[in-house]
Design brief:
Shape: globular
Largest sheet: 6 strands, mixed
Radius of gyration: 20 Å
Oligomer: single chain
Number of domains: 1
Structural class: alpha/beta
Number of strands: 8
CATH topology: Glutaredoxin
Order of helices and strands: HEEEEHEHEHEEH
CATH class: Alpha Beta
CATH architecture: 3-Layer(aba) Sandwich
Strand content: 15-25%
Helix content: 25-40%
């Protein structure tokens, strides 16, 4: 009986350790600076543009794109980043903004978020609003779930900057510097 308890305890410890390691690992690919993003298409039950048309990440080429991947419950986390970007008055022909809303990360009903997004699209017509209904960018790009992730994507679809959660002032300065340097290369 004693051997069984010791063996049972070991099995339990190994099982718990295995589960903890498995739950802590990401399912999707990790994006790396300088490398292209894996292609993602959001359509039908996976999401897409506000008008219901599909969105393809391959559209993130030919100009710089600042992509904000946002949990609707965390919209204020990087308000300082949004303010800093709007104060820069970057040329809209050279840099575009894309807001991808992680609809799977919230308890809020989709119809309510859709109403808010349509209002934002009218107020900010230069920003493209995308709905990610099933957290595809978390799965395929390894973006942070239930938070706010900021990406800068280059003209060839490569990642120039990627940070999740609240950006520090140092990270914000780095982001603005990379944008300025990239635009100066035109």
């Amino acid at each position: 009986m004693r051997e069984f308890r010791q063996t049972g305890s070991r099995v339990l410890c190994l099982t718990v350790a295995y589960l903890v390691m498995g739950l802590g690992s990401r399912v999707g690919a990790e994006i790396r600076s300088g490398e292209p993003l894996p292609p993602v298409v959001l359509e039908e039950d996976r999401g897409g543009q506000l008008d219901g048309s599909p969105w393809n990440s391959n559209s993130l080429k030919e100009r710089l794109h600042i992509l904000m991947y946002v949990d609707p419950d965390e919209v204020e986390v990087n308000a300082h980043v949004e303010d800093a970007l709007s104060q820069q008055n970057f040329d809209q022909e050279k840099i575009r903004s894309v807001a991808v809303i992680n609809m799977a990360a919230t308890w809020k009903p989709n119809f309510a978020i859709d109403i808010i997004l349509k209002g934002k699209q009218e107020k900010y017509p230069d920003t493209l609003y995308i709905r990610d209904l099933q957290g595809e960018l978390v799965k395929k790009w390894g973006l942070i779930d239930d938070s706010y992730h900021v990406l800068l994507i280059g003209r060839k679809g490569e990642v120039l900057f990627s940070t999740g959660d609240t950006l520090s002032e140092e990270q914000l300065t780095k982001l603005l510097s990379i944008i300025t340097e990239s635009l100066a290369g035109d």
